[in-house]
């Protein structure tokens, strides 16, 4: 059985360490697991119930929902901006929470991980993302965590895909998300 995991990255910056961490997840996904790094979060407009009407949902939001609807599980990568998750990630969660009770996140395993410059690796932001995903209907994997501190120095000359400790931890996260996804199916 093949498992499809959709990766959403909360940083839009091309050189983002969280994006690099997501790229590492794609690279190190085991056989039978496909991790798709969603491109286009910057194009998704802010959630507005006035435009979330069947037949007139903005194209970028409709595409996000379509791709998310095909996923078996989600892996969110969150940096920490001013002590919380980035707006682009919260916006994606908002779009995926609708329609209420039947959004693309509903009942699917969700893990939130990431890296940040600070000494705690973005745990506040990750906790906020877990909270939002749970309220949005996702099955948040509260025990699946990976917070990598000191991203600016740790990844200054090394891509996360080439950091053995990160790859080991990331592979374990993917294994747990995969197992929960298969159990939920």
How would you describe this protein?
With 185 residues, the protein is an alpha/beta fold. It has one domain (3-184): Rossmann fold (3-Layer(aba) Sandwich), CATH 3.40.50. 38% of the residues lie in helices and 15% in strands. Strand 1, helix 1 (17-27) and strand 2 form a beta-alpha-beta unit.
Write a short abstract of this structure.
The protein is built from six helices and six strands, in the order E-H-E-H-E-H-E-H-E-E-H-H. It has 185 residues and is of the alpha/beta class.
What's the layout of helices and strands?
Elements lengths: L2 E7 L7 H11 L5 E5 L21 H11 L3 E5 L9 H10 L12 E7 L7 H13 L3 E2 L6 E2 L2 H4 L9 H21 L1
Parallel strand pairs: 1-2, 1-3, 3-4, 4-5, 4-6
What's the architecture, going by CATH? Answer: 3-Layer(aba) Sandwich
Largest sheet: 6 strands, parallel
What distance lies between the first and last C-alpha atoms, to the nearest angstrom? 10 Å
What proportion of the residues is helical, as a percent range? 25-40%
The count of β-strands is 6
CATH topology: Rossmann fold
How many separate domains? 1
By CATH reckoning, the class would read: Alpha Beta
* Overall geometric form: globular
- Structural class, by secondary structure, is alpha/beta
CATH-defined superfamily: Flavodoxin domain
Tell me the radius of gyration.
15 Å
Q: Classify the beta-strand content into a percent band.
A: 15-25%
Order of helices and strands: EHEHEHEHEEHH
Question: What's the rounded overall pLDDT mean?
Answer: 96
The low-confidence runs, each spanning 5 or more residues with pLDDT under 50, are none
Specify the number of helices: 6
């Amino acid at each position: 059985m093949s498992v499809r995991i959709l990766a959403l990255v909360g940083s839009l910056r091309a050189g983002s360490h969280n994006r690099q961490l997501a790229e590492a997840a794609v690279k190190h996904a085991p056989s039978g697991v496909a991790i798709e790094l969603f491109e286009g979060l910057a194009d998704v407009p802010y959630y507005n119930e006035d435009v979330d009407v069947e037949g007139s949902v903005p194209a970028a939001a409709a595409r996000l929902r379509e791709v998310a609807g095909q996923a078996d599980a989600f892996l969110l990568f969150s940096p920490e901006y001013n002590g919380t998750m980035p707006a682009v990630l919260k916006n994606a969660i908002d779009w995926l929470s609708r329609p209420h009770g039947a959004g693309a996140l509903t009942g699917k395993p969700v893990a939130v991980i990431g890296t940040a410059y600070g000494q705690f690796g973005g745990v506040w932001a990750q906790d906020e993302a877990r909270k939002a995903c749970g309220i949005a209907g996702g099955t948040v994997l509260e025990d699946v965590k990976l917070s990598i501190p000191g991203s600016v120095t740790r990844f200054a000359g090394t891509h996360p895909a080439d950091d053995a400790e990160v790859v080991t931890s990331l592979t374990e996260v993917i294994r747990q998300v995969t197992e929960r996804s298969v159990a939920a199916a």
